Predict the structure.
Amino acid sequence: MADLRVSDLNSVPNVESTDLVYISEDVGGGLFESKRITAANFDMLKGVRYYGLSATNPTSPAPSDGDEYYNTVLGKKMYYDVVRSAWLSIEQFVLYFGRAGTTFNESYYRSIDGLAFSSTIGLYTPWAGTIVGITYARNDTDQATFVVTADGADTSATLSSAAVKGATTVLNVDFAANVILGIRNYQASGGNTTLDVNGYVMIRWRV
């Protein structure tokens, strides 16, 4: 029997979990790589397991970094982030913030059409999520801290800097569904104003 192409795996009928199947994959340059797998591993492709459709996060077999499934509640494809030990949406949502001119210490930045964030103005979250990063650029170098708020309360999602630009992509701060996210300038001791800020918060959804 000739090798199966990887793209043909989903159409294989009547295969027992212990059966051996030979597949071939085009690896470029006119070369093909042949592999032998069992039917039990049909959900694996190049080391990534696909769990299919589920309303809850898969737990068995234990997920590894980069594994995927489709969450039927969120309507989103999810991946397993081994660093954060969590299933997160592959989709990354971006919440923009900024303000022309100065933003004083303990003041909110602005969003759509110049609206200032507050405990009631900002991004309403229809699902729970995780803040994974913050990035910014500005026209000053005073020490400042960018803080994400949830319903007006400061979260632990912060980025402190004294440079004209900066970013963090290693945050792991969860927030609940049905809250309003905002961003403000906050420095606990004294605080400084910021000038001409343009930035965004990186968010991935979760269940």
